[in-house]
Amino acid sequence: MTIEKQITFVRPLPGLAPYIDYAFREVDGAAGLHTLRSADGIVRLFLVRIGFERYAGEKALHDAVARLGGEEAEIFAVASVDDDGVHVNLRAPVLISRTKAVGEQVILENAALPVSGTLVA
């Protein structure tokens, strides 16, 4: 059984104001895939859990991790699907602390990180 956790973002995700409160849950049968859903159901995003090693040297991200509770913060990429497949935004990772029930999206300056790339394990 998947547990739903209520997460409040420190500020609205870009383009999604005024939403800051979301239900966060893992998608049954899809390890590492999660959803964020606003209380009214209008906003739903898919998130893929990714590793911190992709972001070595990204000070803005590491500062956000510290604000959200350090090692307990998890990092996700927003996923989207189109006719060409599944894409993830690695330049704007979403951090979530389930323990503190808070989240934050960090927009990084690193042009080497794709806005619409494929996720390779």
Shape type: globular
Total domain modules:
1
How many E-type strands?
Answer: 7
What is the average per-residue confidence, as pLDDT, rounded to a whole number?
87
Residue runs with pLDDT of under 50 for 5 or more positions? none
So what's the oligomer here? single chain
The helix/strand series, from N terminus to C terminus, equals EEEEHEEE
Q: Number of helical segments? A: 1
Q: Into which percent range does the helicity of residues fall?
A: under 10%
Strand percent estimate: 35-45%
Largest sheet descriptor: 7 strands, mixed, barrel
SS class: mainly beta
The assigned CATH architecture is: Roll
Structure commentary:
With 121 residues, the chain is mainly β. It has a single domain (5-105), classed as Roll (BH3618-like), CATH 2.30.290. Helices cover 7% and strands 42% of the residues. The chain has a seven-stranded mixed barrel. The longest helix is centred in the middle third of the chain and has 9 residues, at 59-67.
Quick tags:
BH3618-like, 7-stranded mixed beta barrel, single chain, mainly beta
